[in-house]
Design brief:
Layout lengths: L2 E6 L5 H19 L2 E6 L3 H9 L5 E3 L2 H10 L2 E6 L8 E2 L1 E6 L7 H6 L5 E4 L5 H12 L6 H4 L2 E4 L2 H9 L5 E5 H10 L1 H4 L2 E6 L3 E2 L2 E5 L4 H13 L4 H9 L6 E2 L6 H17 L5 H28 L1
Parallel strand pairs: 1-2, 1-3, 7-8, 7-9
Antiparallel strand pairs: 3-12, 4-12, 4-13, 5-11, 6-9, 6-10
Helix pairs in contact: 1-11, 2-3, 5-12, 12-13
Length: 303
């Protein structure tokens, strides 16, 4: 293969992403002896589709978009990122402007009719799935129905919209907050956290399984050995990461559980379903949950 296309999800502007990623992609290009090109799309779905149609060979995703890539785009998890400070993952946040009277999820839900809400990309783990489950599904409400207005954007746009008082509350995450504190400290300083999720597993790197086996091995070996020199560590630090860790599709199990729980909550709340249909759908979902639970226990017993 003469060119490797590396997919990068749109958490912020592609200009910012390009400058953070380019040094590592240049190293990859040199090591593999082929051109490595970053592949950007306007939303997460664009990178997933790119992999599905063979235009993306390897990609950095969040967990939910990685799950879509594995299920629908011939993807396979080969590595996971690791935070530069060694933390095992990151957290989803809800943020408001520091002048805002909204200080908690309760305040937000109580005043939702008057608030503009900045939600994340529908394929984002921390911007959409995690708050969608823990904040909205568990309170039996849907953002599109309760707020004055709901908009979907990237993490960066959400944070800046709150800082500029264009939206009242938005989803964000701790990685985005750390980056904003470096790139735009005066905007970061006017944000406050009103909710923090349980820990989310670190982001995975996914490869296209329809890629030639030898190319897959080369890419995987490159990633897992990257970070052995000071210069390489500096390039990883650019991305707020330490060295990559080996991973498999099992990395996505906690997110699969979450997605399935969320599906269960929406079936349970669906008043249009007959009692019979509801019972049948819930039974199927519970079987799925129990299989996931069993797999999680097997993994835990081995580690």
């Amino acid at each position: 293969k003469d060119v490797v296309n590396f997919g990068i999800i749109s958490t912020e502007s592609s200009q910012n992403l390009r400058s953070n990623w380019q040094p590592m992609l240049d190293d990859m290009s040199e090591e593999l002896g082929v051109e490595v090109k970053p592949f950007f799309a306007s939303d997460y779905a664009g990178v997933i589709q790119g992999m599905r149609f063979g235009k993306v060979d390897i990609a950095w995703y969040g967990n939910k978009s990685a799950m879509e890539a594995v299920d629908r785009a011939n993807g396979q998890v080969i590595a996971s990122t690791a935070a530069a400070d060694g933390s095992p993952g990151y957290w989803s946040l809800l943020i408001a402007h520091k002048d805002s009277p909204i200080n908690s999820v309760e305040d937000m839900l109580k005043n939702a009719k008057e608030l503009n809400f900045g939600n994340g990309d529908p394929n984002s783990t921390s911007g959409f799935l995690v708050p969608g489950y823990y904040v909205f599904a568990q309170n039996k409400v849907e953002p599109n129905k309760i707020f004055k207005r709901t908009l979907n954007s990237t993490h960066e746009v959400n944070a800046l919209s709150v800082a500029n008082k264009q939206v009242d509350v938005a989803t964000f995450n701790t990685e985005g907050m750390e980056r904003l504190q470096k790139t735009n400290p005066e905007k970061a300083a006017v944000l406050k956290e009103i909710w923090r999720s349980p820990l989310i597993p670190a982001d995975p790197i996914v490869i296209r399984t329809t890629l030639d086996k030898e190319d897959q091995d080369k890419l995987k070996n490159f990633l897992l050995s990257y970070g052995s020199t000071d210069e390489e560590m500096k390039n990883l630090k650019n991305l707020d990461w330490g060295k990559f860790k080996p991973a498999t599709n099992d990395h996505l199990l906690p997110i699969r559980q979450l997605e399935t729980f969320k599906k269960r909550a929406s079936i349970e709340a669906d008043e249009k379903l007959s009692a019979e249909d509801k019972a049948a759908q819930l039974k199927a979902i519970d079987e799925e949950l129990s299989a996931l639970d069993k797999r999680m226990k097997e993994i835990a017993s081995k580690s």
